[in-house]
Amino acid sequence: MLRIEKLNKSYGRQLVLQDLTLQIGAGEIYGLLGPNGAGKTTTINIICNLLRADSGVIAINNQPVSNATKPLIGVAPQENLLYKTLSCEENLNFFAQIYGLRGLHRRQQVQASLAAVNLTERAKSPVATLSGGMQRRMNLAIALVHQPKLVILDEPTTGLDIEARYEIWELILQLQRQGITILLTTHLLDEAERLCQRIGILKNGRLLAEGSLAELRQRIPAQEILVVQTQDEERAIERAGKWGFIARRYGNQLAFWLPEHLELKEIVSRFEGIPVDSIARQPVRLEHIYIEFTDKNNA
Amino acid sequence: MKYWHETLAVAQRILIELLRRRRSLVFWSTFPISVLLLNGCIFAERAKLSMAQAFAIAAPLTLVGAALFFSCLGGSVAIVVAEREQQTLKRLFISPLSGTSYFLGMFLAHSCIGIGQTLLVYIVAGFWGARFNGSLLLGGTIIFLSIISYVGLGFILGTNLARRTEDVNSLVAAFGVPLLILGGAFVPAFLFPKTLLRIAKLDPIYHMSEALLGVSASGDDLSSIAWHFWFLLGFAILMVGGGWLFYRRMLIVERRL
Known about the structure:
The complex is a heterodimer of chains A (299) and B (257).
Chain A: E1 2-11, E2 14-24, E3 29-33, H1 40-47, E4 55-60, E5 63-64, E6 73-76, H2 88-98, H3 103-116, H4 132-144, E7 150-154, H5 162-177, E8 181-185, H6 189-195, E9 198-203, E10 206-211, H7 213-217, E11 224-230, H8 233-242, E12 246-250, E13 253-258, H9 264-270, E14 276-282, H10 286-298
Parallel strand pairs in A: 3-8, 3-9, 6-7, 7-8
Antiparallel strand pairs in A: 1-2, 1-4, 4-5, 9-10, 11-13, 11-14, 12-13
Helix pairs in contact in A: 2-3
Chain B: H1 2-20, H2 22-46, H3 51-86, H4 88-94, H5 99-127, H6 136-161, H7 165-183, H8 194-200, H9 204-218, H10 226-254
């Protein structure tokens, strides 16, 4: 559905994208992760034909990106870009007209989009009267009204409470069930973990790693993460090193990568003689992989 | 057909938004009526004219000099600025909407507002006995050229000089009000001293006002108002061209998510 090959973009001397290559298959949810300034928004801008790449190929449904590919894409930007004095229906009607939908088909699509985001009952309400979560759903409805093949969701749940977040997640999964391809950017790693079939980690314009969560897990030599609380971190690190545990810091937490599965008894015995307050075992999660890739690149 | 549907969509949206803000609608109606009444009464008193004659002069001056200026110029600046502030312009950049349709939609919406104001002004002036004496086609053309000029100028100002809603007021105060006075919107140009009149001839509002005044009050034909008409036509073309260029420039700067 989306093919990006050796995409390069720079602003003056600053390289923003460097040989970015990725492909997203039809009906797939692809998560593009990366810290601020990684190049995610630039990539989206190029896909939407708002920016031109310096070099490289970018095609949607095998058509090179141009104004003609705009109707193939639906974008839900980070901010809720809505006409606040207009009702939900009027907002959708306006954008449906702009995307070339006419007559009965337009009216049907407006109703279908409202139904898709569970806002049928608020069709006549001015957008300004909707809650933050509802406005975010409206933002998504506008991206869907013209039945795009590829939907780009730029941080779709940022700033939402957990209930609204669940609603959006369910909506995204529903879209996927309808065969829509989704490119999702997010800073919420559990969101990516929950929704995406494949994930790409971008930093300084380079794709550092890509694959399913299972594939990405294999890129780091850890079966489990051990979070240890101790007054004597130096000794704990030294001891863990002897057993082949790799030490890492996640925020203020001291953690170790376990290269193999171990029983709790065995783990405790390996820290014998060190005043350990607590030991917690965690599965390897996307956040561990993400930090590994993005920090390594820093170093 | 694509352009037509897009133009219609933009115009419809602007008009719905205006209708939603009922208070603004009331103000847009009150403003030309109050200016017309004041102008009519002042002209009748100071120029020793009958009420019918005074309102026949006041109506075109009030319409193109004051009413259309604030609704079409102020309105189009305000719409562009509001779209930038709310960032809905970004949504439009993502969509297949063309810049031409956006401008035409804005023009169509303001034409509807302008027609409404024209009817309002001439109905009120008609109540005092004033009549539109010239060609309706020529009068309509002058009004449409004035609307195009104002919308074009609104694009230029809105896309470049005004970034926030507050900027709109200062822009209108800085550029608009002096041009209005010099254009004869409040004091007819025949009362101007010679030096001021020479300067006024550089003011497009003066030519709009004089052209419509000639057609509406005196029943002039195109040959009698040729100089004002061609000046207005040239200005309208310039403003549309300028508006287009400045819009393109804004696209280059702001076309990002």
